Amino acid sequence: MLGKKLVTAQKRGETRALCLGLGMVACSMMMYFFIGITIVPFYTNSVWTTETVCKVLKANIKDKVFCPNSKGSEDEENFPYPCLQVWVNLTASGQEVMLYQTEDTLEKNPKCSYVPDKLENSKEVKARIETIASNFKKYQTFPCYYDPGGTQTNVILSRLYPSKSLLFAFLWPTLMFTGGCLIIVLVKISQYVSVLSAWQ
């Protein structure tokens, strides 16, 4: 009687462990799919892939412009901000090009090197842009990214999704997938050992 209870408890434990392993594998596959349709396209579509050194030529703050955060938005003119324009000398080609913060900055407003958050206070935005401009004037040389194919003549300061971020995004689903497969394998080994011992 006691033996039957132990066998039943063992089967229940194996079933729960197997469900856990399968659940972890299923969740990891969903995470892979989510990363594949969100982060990977941004990474692969970016043409600014080669790192080089940029030297600041001028960093000027123009008059206030309106933030075109979203196309067709009715409240575009409700968010004016100072337009920072940074021109750099591209070491790789020796050209004078405009610098943008990220790929997204160019899409939001190609006239400005930096586009602030719409929710920020206007005084904070002005102070931040002035600080950024002074930092560019202070640190003349810094790494930047350019398009080796030549389709984009401008450069960006940092990529939205660099290689390290992409690898880090794939790290957690990979660990979950590995853990789930390991649990499944251990359960199958346990079942095989139980059947083998019972047969002997």
Q: Which helices and strands occur, and which strands form pairs?
A:
Layout: H1 2-45, E1 50-66, E2 80-90, E3 96-100, H2 103-108, H3 122-138, E4 141-146, E5 155-156, H4 163-199
Parallel strand pairs: 3-5
Antiparallel strand pairs: 1-2, 1-4, 2-3, 4-5
Helix pairs in contact: 1-4
Quick overview of this protein structure:
The chain is α+β, with helices and mostly antiparallel strands and 200 residues long. Helix content is 52%, strand content 20%. Helix 1 (2-45) runs antiparallel to helix 4.
Overview of the structural elements:
- By secondary structure, the chain is of the alpha+beta class.
- The protein folds into two domains: 50-161, no CATH class; 162-199.
- Helices cover 52% and strands 20% of the residues.
- The chain contains four helices and five strands, in the order H-E-E-E-H-H-E-E-H.
- The protein has helices at 2-45, 103-108, 122-138, 163-199, and strands at 50-66, 80-90, 96-100, 141-146, 155-156.
- It has a five-stranded mixed barrel with strand order 1-2-3-5-4.
- It is elongated.
- Its main location: membrane.
- It is found in: Membrane.
- InterPro entries: K_chnl_Ca-activ_BK_bsu.
